[in-house]
Design a protein that fits this description.
Layout lengths: L3 E6 L10 H10 L2 E6 L4 H13 L3 E5 L11 H10 L5 E10 L7 H18 L3 E6 L2 H9 L8 E3 L6 H9 L3 E4 L10 H4 L10 E3 L25 H12 L3 H16 L11
Parallel strand pairs: 1-2, 2-3, 3-4, 4-5, 5-6, 6-7, 7-8
Length: 270
């Protein structure tokens, strides 16, 4: 089946408090060789980093999700900046814009997003981006940084063909989740994933969210797990008319290159 890398796992979520170690072990046992734990604010980013110190195949991001933008302080920014000096903190984010629910006012979202874009440009660390119902605003802001931005991935992409083509045109990578396994909500995405070039594709579970709806037998819990990533890979392979081995190989290669993941024997600084 090949080894997979899950580029987006919310492993600091309280739904993993009782069995976090087992979840990591179960993912490894089915070929998920690495997981990147998403940092959504300064506190969660620190918790994610602490997990990386306990587990070799675990990495993390550090940033502020647009939902949390209204609470992002100067001290929080300094904390995120400090975390990003560590080798195992491999990207700036999760950051971006979310005009779907506007848990933070759009203007504040934009300001906090730009702070993190500046940080990514200064540190030249890749960007782990979140976007919901904000494609035009996202493209406009990214356009202000043309020629400066490091590599960037739109994580958990669920947008339109127009949005996909716009992001690809600007050189972005695309993270695909089990959304493609939902025969209702996910069909528009399933219809366009073939447009993503092999060299720009990455996959993720976004666990504990977005459990694949087509799993049989259906899991007893609604909690998504990183061990379900090969299932998403298999579904993606079917849609793209490629083999599961090919999907595993290209997405793992892209993830290693994008996040600058070390080879097994390299020393990491804490």
């Amino acid at each position: 089946m090949g080894n997979y890398i899950d580029i987006g796992v919310n492993l600091t979520n309280s739904r993993f408090d009782k069995d976090r170690e087992q979840v990591i072990a179960d993912a490894l046992s089915v070929g998920v060789s690495s997981q990147i734990i998403t940092g959504t604010n300064a506190k969660e980013s620190l918790k994610a980093f602490e997990l990386t110190k306990q587990h070799n195949p675990i990495f993390s991001t550090a940033g502020c999700h647009p939902h949390d933008a209204k609470d992002f302080t100067t001290e929080d920014f300094k904390s995120v900046e400090s975390l990003l000096t560590h080798d195992k903190v491999v990207a700036v984010g999760e950051c971006g814009l979310d005009f779907n629910r506007n848990f933070s006012p759009p203007d504040i979202q934009k300001n906090v997003f730009k702070q993190q874009l500046d940080l990514a440009c200064n540190l030249q660390k890749p960007l782990f981006l979140h976007e919901r119902d904000a494609t035009d605003a996202m493209l406009a802001i990214l356009g202000q940084y043309k020629g400066q931005l490091p590599k960037a991935v739109i994580h958990c992409f669920t947008g339109s063909q127009e949005a996909l083509e716009a992001y690809l045109e600007r050189g972005l990578y695309i993270g695909i989740t089990g959304w493609v396994c939902d025969e209702r909500r996910g069909k528009p995405l399933a219809d366009i994933v073939h447009l993503i070039p092999d060299e720009r594709l990455m996959i993720e579970t976004d666990a504990p969210y977005l459990i694949p709806r087509d799993m049989r037998p259906k899991p007893k819990s609604s909690r998504n797990l990183p061990q379900y990533l090969p299932h998403i890979g298999q579904r993606l392979a079917e849609i793209r008319q490629q083999s599961a081995e090919h999907i595993a190989r290209i997405t793992s290669h892209n993830s290693k290159q994008f996040f600058n993941l070390p080879h097994k024997n390299e020393q990491l600084k804490e």
